[in-house]
Amino acid sequence: MNIIIGKNSGFCAGVKYTINKTEEELNKTNGTVDCLGELIHNKQVVDSLESKGLRVIDSIDEAENKVIIRAHGISKNIYETAKIRKIKLVDLTCPKVLRIHKQVEDFSKDNYFIFLFGIKNHPETIGTFSFCGNNSYLLESKEDIDNAILSFKSSGLKDLLIISQTTFSLSLFDEMTSIISDILAPDYNIHIEKSICNATSLRQLETEELSSKVDLMIIIGGKNSSNTKKLYEVALKNCKNVVHIQTKEDLDLDFVKTFENIGIMAGASTPDYIIDDVYNAIKQ
Ligand code: SF4
Questions:
Q1: Does residue 166 line the site of ligand 1, with CB under 6 A?
Q2: What is the pLDDT along the chain (284 residues), one digit of tens a residue?
Q3: Taking CA 199 as the corner, what is the angle to CA 104 and CA 128, rounded to the nearest 5 degrees?
Q4: Under CATH, what is the fold of the domain 13-94?
Q5: Is 199 in the pocket of ligand 1 (CB under 6 A)?
Q6: Does ligand 1 lie within 6 Å of residue 225's CB atom?
Q7: 124 in catalytic set
């Protein structure tokens, strides 16, 4: 049996930084820190931080301590509420997400209409969309393009920014951008910002390559993790047998045993020890 683990598997720089900083805060405060939403989409990591005192809250109104803002970032109104209520924030929004917030705000001030590509109920998208201003439209799939264009045209604006969530699908970004450009150019000015994070792009490209070489592809990551779901979709395009698991316990080893060549790829919120556990379980 041949098992290949993708080189770009697991924690990205943003997630590593977030976890380290949260642990530092927990040490400094003897475990009295709140976190707005689960820090990352990985149950095992969240459970471990909770056991050290991290309290996950669903709304800023529940804050009792310093509040950690996770890598996904937050909406403009949450910053405003925290300021009014004098809640101290430990802002661990990934710099790549903050950059997108600044870009959409700047383009909006310059009278651009904004098309934001992203998963509609994802915290990062909700946060970024709040910085886009009124002249904006959130698109999750090709089905949203017609309404987005109607909304843009009815705004009377001539300039359009296309930008996306950091973990959006690379291929879908290109496809949607090309459809929109075909409809609007040359009558409108379109500025395209390929804001998909490098860590995400590399992981998706490697998953594409690896899944075309193996008989079974195992994708490890949280069930709510947007970047992990994308990896699963990318792998399915090239490989008939793809499974999405969170830990080794989810693996059907009798099924796995029937394959010769197995590829493993893990999302940005998956710690190395979970990847190693899966690898060792298969090897044994
Ligand atoms: S995937 Fe990219 S944007 Fe998201 S936290 Fe990691 S480094 Fe930051």
A1: yes
A2: 999 999 999 999 999 999 999 999 999 999 899 999 999 988 889 999 999 999 999 999 999 999 999 999 999 999 999 999 999 999 999 999 999 999 999 999 999 999 999 999 999 999 999 999 999 999 999 999 999 999 999 999 999 999 999 999 999 999 999 999 999 999 999 999 999 999 999 999 999 999 999 999 999 999 889 899 999 999 999 999 999 999 999 999 999 999 999 999 999 999 999 999 999 999 99
A3: 20
A4: Rossmann fold (3.40.50)
A5: yes
A6: no
A7: yes
pTM of the complete model: 0.91
Q: Is the dihedral of CA 132, 124, 267, 272 positive or negative?
A: positive
Among residues 85, 88, 86, the alpha carbon closest in space to that of 36 is found at 88
Looking at CATH, the fold of the domain delimited by 2-10+198-283 is given as Cobalt-precorrin-4 Transmethylase; domain 1 (3.40.1010)
Token pair for 39:
């820090």
Residue nearest to atom 6 of ligand 1 (CA): 14
The count of residues in the chain is: 284
Instruction: Kindly give the interhelix angle for 198-211 and 226-238, rounded to the nearest 10 degrees.
Output: 30
Residue 159: both structure tokens together:
């300039």
The domain 96-192 is classified under which CATH number: 1.10.150.170, 3.40.50.2300, 3.40.1010.20, 3.20.20.60?
3.40.1010.20
